[in-house]
Amino acid sequence: MMFRLAQVSDPHFQCFRLASLRQLLGKRAVGALNLLVRRRRKHRMELLQALLEDLPGRAFDHLALTGDLCNVALESEWSAALRWIEATGLPADRVTVIPGNHDAYVPEVVASGAFERMFAAYMTAELRAGEAAYPFVRLRGEVALVCVSTGVPTGDLGAWGRVGEAQLARLESLLVAPEVKARRRVLLIHHPPILNRHGEDCNLRDRAALQAVLARTGADLVLHGHDHRDFFKELPGPGGSRIPVVGAGSASYAGGPDTRSRYNIYEIDGAAITFVTYAHDAATGKFVEFRRKRVAG
Ligand SMILES: [Fe+2]
Ligand SMILES: [Fe+2]
Which of 46, 202, 234, 281 has the most neighbouring CB atoms within 10 Å? Predict the structure, then answer.
């Protein structure tokens, strides 16, 4: 049976009051305010509303949000994201959330586990490796969603990410667990596992180690966000196989047709995987099919 997975990435919900910003971020408030003002023009909340209204017209089984739900890790931003998720009307077991680098903007907030608490309903797992929060695995029909965190508190000092040695070891054990291996393995990760167009301060630091894990274990599909651009590449899997890697653009970006607010739906039908990108059309205000690509099978 075909499984349809929708991916919404990098919504960067913006919701703050100046007074609370100072109180919550202290001397980080100036950098945060700069970032918020710059982003206000680039990421438009009305595009997220338009996307929300488009979703019910599409057929999909599950919705994955691949990080950067906020800008500066404020609870008010995450609350806005939660309200949006709830407005989809989807039950929690049909929505999966992973963090991005912006969700790890403030070290104290990362240490407090606030993100994991707020989005707990969307991070329940059938499978984990021990007590660690990441990776977590959600089994849905013939699909296993293997969910990784690359969030490192970098603040204003970059947008890089890291899986980390310990999480990589857990990831390897989960990817070969019998319940996972018996299904189509979809890895959800915020940062691209391949060098993107920016420098090291925007990339996944230990991407080579992650690629080595995937080359040993294999996977059916790797989905990421972060770059705010459509992305497609392949990574080598075991025995000469290839693993499709697809990046979704930002759900709220107010750019031209190539980057404007968009989301993907992956049709996973046995070994055959096709994805469709739906992009916001500024002229009509509607989402239209922008690209359809078969990436496996
Ligand atoms: Fe982002
Ligand atoms: Fe990001």
Answer: 202
Ligand nearest to the CA of 8: 1
In the chain, the DSSP E strands lie at 3-8, 62-66, 95-98, 127-128, 136-140, 143-147, 184-188, 221-224, 231-236, 242-247, 262-269, 272-281, 286-296
Instruction: Check residue 29 and give its pLDDT.
Output: 82
Gap from CA of 276 to ligand 2 centroid (Å): 22
Q: Phi first, then psi: what are they for 263, rounded to 5°? A: -155, 165
CA 284 to chain centre: 27
* Through-space distance between the first and last CA atoms of the chain, rounded to whole angstroms: 15
What mean pLDDT, rounded, does the chain reach? 95
Strands 136-140 and 143-147: antiparallel
Cα 224 to Cα 243: distance, rounded to the nearest angstrom: 13
pLDDT score for 119: 98
Q: How far is Cα of residue 110 from the mean position of the Cα atoms in its chain?
A: 17
* Ranges of the chain with pLDDT below 70: 155-156
Domain ranges of the chain: 3-296
pLDDT digits (tens, 9 = 90+) for 278-290: 999 999 999 999 9
Distance 174 CA to ligand 2 centre (A): 25
pTM for the model: 0.97
Please, which residues have CB less than 5 A from ligand 1, an ion?
10, 68
Class of the CATH domain delimited by 3-296? alpha beta
Please name which of 84, 136, 63, 77 lies closest in space to residue 105, comparing C-alpha atoms: 77
Between the CA of 149 and the centroid of ligand 1 the distance, in Å, is 14
